Amino acid sequence: LFNADQYQIVNLVGPTGVGKTELAKCVVKKIFEDAKNCSVKKGMPAVYTEIPVYGGSSFDWKGLYLRVLDSMNAPPENLSRAIKFPQARMAGRGYSERLRTEDQIRRHLEARIIDLGVKVLIFDEVQHLFKFTAKNAEKSLDILKSLANITKCQIVLIGTYESLRSIAWSGQLSRRTENIHFHRYDWMEEDQRKGFIEAYNGLLSQIPFEISTSLISVSAASDIYHLCCGCVGILKQTIEKTLARHCSSKVLTLDDIKTSALSNNERIQIAREIQEGEAFFEEGSDEELDILLGIKKQSSPSKESTTSSKKKNKVGTRKPKRDSVGLNA
């Protein structure tokens, strides 16, 4: 997938706690290892940045640009400021990022990406880009596309299902985007059920306490699946909460894990988000596409059903249905 000519933007989406951030960190590590094996001795092949939630009525792009520069360990602009401007002009003046415009910082970022040879720019928690109005969200997508075009750098967006509604607004952007669905473990699929049990057993093997044999049974794995909605990140967090409050002299049981789990209402909310997100990736029918393209005409209702639906009784005529019968006491 790491080919900017084919995929300018890679959009990785999935439910909360499925492991998207851990996957992103593994991807960055893999890119650096590949660069080292290819004898690349300078530059920075990949940059990972988490998008924060800013205050205000619109997204703070200036703050994000500065955050990306920090992730790249870029030297501050004031180190080269004395070269650009005579010292006499600098006398009595301090330097502040606040004095630089958004456009100046954007140009600085573009230059750093090109100079360092950054091939992949990874933005995590991308749903924070779309916390505002639809107009601002559409503009954000255009800015990312412009950044990818100018720097010839591939942009990887990682976020929850919340970002899908925004990504789908523009057909132009969809043409340049590769959507990857990082979905939960599906208990109804045998291979995924086995994968979840293996992941669950892997987490149990890291617990430094004595554990009950009931935690290893298949029925216990089914209960654990309900506690985390099939997302290993949620399960890992639940186990960490359990260990934080667990007494080392006691045997760890299933009830201990259930005590630290999310409430039913919280899991129901997560399950609803999963259902809506997975519905986005369901393929539409060929017939619907043909109708939209004008290849086929939409089938009209039969004449009999149309006339029967439009047929009305004359004014004063009773409807042909049985009157309710009242029983005398």
Put the structure in a nutshell:
This protein is an alpha/beta fold and 329 residues long. The protein has helices spanning 20-37, 61-71, 78-84, 87-90, 102-116, 134-151, 164-167, 171-175, 190-204, 218-228, 232-244, 254-260, 264-280, 286-293, 303-310; strands spanning 9-13, 46-50, 120-124, 154-159, 177-181. It is globular and about 60 Å long.
> What is the CA-CA span between the terminal residues?
79 Å
Q: Could you estimate the helical fraction of the residues in percent?
A: 40-55%
Count, helices: 15
Summarize the main sheet: 5 strands, parallel
Kindly state the number of beta strands: 5
Name the average pLDDT: 80
Shape: globular
Structural class: alpha/beta
Low-confidence stretches: 80-88, 90-95
Note the quaternary state here.
Answer: single chain
Strand content: 5-15%
Gyration radius, in Å: 28 Å
Largest sheet: spatial strand order: 2-3-4-1-5
Q: What is the H-and-E element order?
A: EHEHHHHEHEHHEHHHHHHH
